[in-house]
Amino acid sequence: MSFEVRYSDLAGRIGKLETAHGTLDTPAFIPVVHPVRQTVSSQFLRSLGFDAVITNAYTTLKYYGDIARSRGIHRILDYDGIVMTDSGGYQILEYGTIKTEPHTISQFELDVGSDIAVPLDRPTGFKLDYGKAKRYVEETLANAKNALKATRTFAKEEYRRDRDNLGTTVWAGPVQGAEHLDLVTYSASALDQMGFPLLAIGSPVEVMEAYEFSILAQIIATVRRTSPSKPIHLFGAGHPVTIPLAISLGCDMFDSASYMLYAKCDRYMHPNGTAKLQDLSYLPCQCPVCCQYVIKELQEMKRPDRIQELAKHNLFVLKAEVDTVKQAIVDGRLWEYVMLKARAHPKLMAAMELFRDFEYLEHGTPLFKHKAIFLYGPIDQYRPEAIRFKRIAAEFRSAFKKNLVLFPTTELQPFYVTGEFIGLIQKYPESQICVYNRFLGIIPVEICDIFPAAHHLNLAPANAKNAIDYPTFIESLNNFLAKNSFENIIIIADEFMQSAISNSRYKDMSNLDIQALPEK
């Protein structure tokens, strides 16, 4: 397997993952298909642009046995794209056990020619006590190690069948531990060291069903920090609002049967969630399904037909969401898009607050972007571009100028082309002039054209007057004053700056000349 990254923003990345049955464009949603009872045909999935599907190896073994070994998983599913097989871990989570051994499942996945396979794992689920969760992690790691041994043995066998990908299966190491983040770190690190080229995060379904998006975010961040370069799969992520969150934190692939499960419950997906079909008066979508019917026709359709049409609609919504996120990555707008989607649910917005602690998001964020970034509220002071610029400004030293003038940022950028700047240098010659911005901190005029100081849109709302909500600005102000020795400091202070001064650590007021912002 090879994995090539072409674009990135935050921890989201657009890449190409090479397998025996083609290239998977990531991020990718991989629909779950049932090996026996599949309502939406594999050909329809392929025509819609899904270049990979995932099916259950345990169920396939149970129903087909040697027939699957003889025909191969691609013929069983009648699908010529990439096939990923899950081992049966979900059945263990649902029913407590399955009637087969781990090595049997691993060998079966190799025998049927799976492109991407998962060793039999023991899901930790959610709210499992620590001791039991640790035992499940150890059991999963032992199964994973045996799967790799089976692969090495399989590769040495002399016989080969008529399937061109036999022996080229890529193993995805299943990461367990759920909310026990130290176990997640231990699991991911062990699988990484074993040599798994792809990691798959298990046990998220119960977390997502409980809307514990903050816990989900921490799990994903833990795995991505542990293994920053390898592609990461997320099991069971099939809700439109979770997709941007998962991608922005570092997931490259995710699967779900949600499109079908929701359809069976008459749930209609839309970009910000789902709705019961009987509660709708209109179809707020332009996919082929919604263009073919009016709402009453769908509601009165026979159940099997309605399930199929709803499932197709849900697939269109999921694909559109993934493609929208991809475009946001290319445009350098992933932060804006994730924050927009977060407003679909309060617990999603709570998860966004954790982004301030995810320093690794900066690694994938480009140094420069072709478009100005948008800055709205307090959370935006923590976006990677703002943090990076404040770090640059913190190194600035004004060696020869004895006086400092601070002026609020202007809508026209960079500041040195404004009339305000010309007026300041005439009134205060030989002074160090800086503008201040609640998101970017103190900005010396000498670097006010560096991205994003002159490449952002910041329309201050009327209530942005309390600097307590912007601790990074107060820190920037304190650091700048502490690292530069000015004899006189003139601050043209708006209400925000007045609040910042009162909350700063700078106590020597003798050399401060605080002036009111002149009216326009």
Main traits of this protein?
520 residues; alpha/beta; TIM Barrel; Rossmann fold; 2 domains; 8-stranded parallel β-sheet; 5-stranded mixed β-sheet; 21 helices; 41% helix; elongated
Biggest beta sheet summary? 8 strands, parallel
End-to-end distance: 62 Å
Structural class: alpha/beta
Mean pLDDT: 90
Low-confidence runs (pLDDT<50, min 5 residues)?
158-163
Quaternary: single chain
Helix content: 40-55%
* CA radius of gyration: 27 Å
CATH topology of the largest domain: TIM Barrel
- Counted beta strands: 20
Number of domains: 2
Question: Which CATH C-level class of the largest domain is it?
Answer: Alpha Beta
Per the principal axes of the C-alpha atoms, what is the gross shape? Answer: elongated
CATH architecture of the largest domain: Alpha-Beta Barrel
In a nutshell, what does this entry contain?
By secondary structure, this protein is an alpha/beta fold.
Could you explain the architecture of this structure?
With 520 residues, this protein is an alpha/beta fold. The protein has two domains: 2-257, TIM Barrel, CATH 3.20.20.105; 373-516, Rossmann fold. The protein contains 21 helices and 20 strands. The longest helix has 29 residues, at 303-331. Mean pLDDT is 90; it is low at 158-163.
